[in-house]
Amino acid sequence: QAQLLESGGGLVQAGGSLRLSCVASGRTFTNYYMGWFRQAPGKAREFVAAKSWNGISTYYADSVKGRFTISRDNAKNTVSLQMNSLKPEDTAVYYCAADPSLKVFLDAAGMDYWGKGTLVTVSS
User: Fold this and answer.
1) Which of 16, 34, 118, 119 fits a disulfide with 79 by CB distance 3.0 to 4.6 angstroms?
2) Are 31 and 43 in contact (CB under 8 A)?
3) Pairing between strand 10-13 and 118-123?
4) Beta-strand pair 118-123/92-99
């Protein structure tokens, strides 16, 4: 059974950096978009970043553009999120996700695969 497993979360001061990683197992995600969502306490889950299978297309939420960078290594079945210039409002549980449809991915509705999440806490 396919699984997504996140790692790399933790506590960091505002202005600092963290790198999240997601390892996929159980299948290869050919032609799947893979990326990240986050959910802050008391808020809905929101899209953060996504990358196409071939790496040509990349999408970011406006709130993280210029600060976060998504990368993908299909040979290792991994997707990563480099987060720089972190702000307290970036505090959330970050989830890895995968789906072959960009629309499903951006709408976060009916996603094929979700990871269990990793907590990122940014202190002021």
Assistant:
1) 34
2) no
3) parallel
4) antiparallel
Helix or strand run (H / E) with residue 24: strand 18-25
| pLDDT tens column, 31-63 | 999 999 999 999 999 999 999 999 999 999 999
Closest CA to 81 of 38, 27, 29: 38
The secondary structure element, H or E, covering residue 33 is: strand 33-39
CA distances, 80 to each of 14, 42, 43, 84 (Å): 20, 25, 23, 13
Neighbouring C-beta atoms of residue 91, cutoff 10 Å: 19
> Residue with structure tokens 């709130």?
63
- Give the whole-number percent of the chain exceeding pLDDT 90: 90
